[in-house]
Amino acid sequence: MQTFDLEANGLRALNEALQAQSQHTNEIAWEVVNPRGSHAIAVGLDAPIEVTVKGSTGYYCAGMNKQATITVDGSAGPGVAENMMSGAVIVEGDASQYAGATGHGGLLVIKGNASSRCGISMKGIDIVVQGNVGHMSAFMAQKGNLVVCGDAGDALGDSIYEARLFVRGEVKSLGADCIEKEMRPEHLEILRGLLERSEIDAKPEEFRRYGSARKLYNFNIDNAY
Amino acid sequence: MCGIVGLFLKDKALEPRLGEMLTDMLITMTDRGPDSAGIAVYSEDREGRAKLTVQADDPGRFDGLGDEMAQALGCDVTVRVKDTHAVVDLPEGRMAEARLALKELRPEARVMSAGEVIEIYKEVGLPGDVAKRFDIPNLAGSHGIGHTRMATESAVTTMGAHPFSTGADQCLVHNGSLSNHNSLRRELAREGVSVETRNDSEVAAAYLTWKMQQGHSLGDALEAGLDDLDGFFTFVVGTKDGFGVVRDPIACKPAVMAETDQYVAFGSEYRALVNLPGIEDARVWEPEPATVYFWKH
């Protein structure tokens, strides 16, 4: 286990050390202490390493992740796991706004609540939230799965293209072109897999599925202002 | 961008450390706004006394002001000068006369705040420099608010710095931008409420003052603001014994709060709060959009 004191050694040295790890590194396990809400912790990683941040983080933690598994042992600020390509990010506490934004792949697990715009413009990422998500979550979502074990705020899935949204609790309101859809066996299977991988104890049958009505795909003068 | 901090103490034992804690929080937020910085502190209530915080670019202008004010008002007045600011201490109930006398005696002096307990210190520059000039870390008090500005509306001047105070013991700091401040400014002018700068945040402060003058509580005034103020905002406001927070319904502007048995704290970012005592065990949350939060002593 490598322990890195962020306060003593600084952000640049941390990200340089983590980004320098190769595909075949032996230094698999990393621990970052004293994050103290700093921004851009563990960004741009591209190696199968495991990084645990002991405390809460600021903006853009674990951004652009590839391959690495990054755990935040606290809460995460705005833009956690933004534009993730692969790997996994686990937030033990809450996440601020636009968690997992524009993510192309990988798995983001938030054990607490996520704030507004969770999964905005998601492009293939899987996001599992144990608590609630705020307003405008999955706005313009294009691909991937958003699983919400609690409630969703206003305008869920506004202007959604594709992507599957699974919500166990209440949905305050659905955004433009987002509708409830039938939960078929293949969806229950996808959901079961995601819950298992996230180590979250919930029954897939308790969820409802939402997705695109596909009415905004083509220009329609009635939709113009 | 702008950075906001606020601290409302429940535990009196922390009161001597208010200025020190607020300064530390605000310095952490320096990179959210390097243009100007300011702090409002609510200090001990001295029975029967009130104070006026005034600013002059040349502190020499304050020479002899205490005696001249005492003579003009015919009562006991003292003046404490701190760099470009001076705190005029006077008997409660004489504020209106004191403001008139000040206008006569020092027409170039600008009023930062007036009330029984509030003091506001603000200048162009970084939080660390501003705090040092006014010796903020040594200020004691029950609650306080700080702001570091990245200007998006109006000039970078002392008067354009936050906090804005438009009523007795009231102040407001703002992160965001209002889109209807010009029309609101005209409406307020018709109601007899005037503002001194072209700044959008001052209009928000004046709006709340106007609502409270009509008999609304601060909480009700903030609720009304959600309907009448258009744009982006996270506001932190102070009154003589209260502390409030509200964000617009879109809630783009960041906000993190923490509460323990000892205090309620606000920061634009979590890192502003990390040095507070007991933060590891505090309840930490993001204020919900379009929701008014308010605490009172």
TrEMBL record, chain A:
Cross-referenced InterPro entries: Glu_synth_asu_C_sf, Glu_synth_lsu_3
- Name the Gene Ontology molecular function terms of this record: oxidoreductase activity
Which protein are we looking at?
Answer: Protein GlxC
TrEMBL record, chain B:
Start and end of every Glutamine amidotransferase type-2 domain?
Answer: 2-297
Gene Ontology terms, MF aspect:
transferase activity
Short name of one Pfam family for this protein? GATase_6
Superkingdom of this protein's organism: Bacteria
Q: Kindly give the Gene3D superfamilies that the UniProt entry links to this protein.
A: Glutamine Phosphoribosylpyrophosphate, subunit 1, domain 1
| InterPro entries given in the database record | GATase_2_dom, Ntn_hydrolases_N
Q: Which SUPFAM superfamilies match?
A: N-terminal nucleophile aminohydrolases (Ntn hydrolases) (SSF56235)
Transferase recorded as keyword: yes
What are the alphabetically sorted keywords of the record?
Answer: Glutamine amidotransferase, Transferase
Write down the PANTHER family for this protein, in alphabetical order. Answer: AMIDOPHOSPHORIBOSYLTRANSFERASE
Its protein name is Glutamine amidotransferase
What is the source species? Roseovarius bejariae
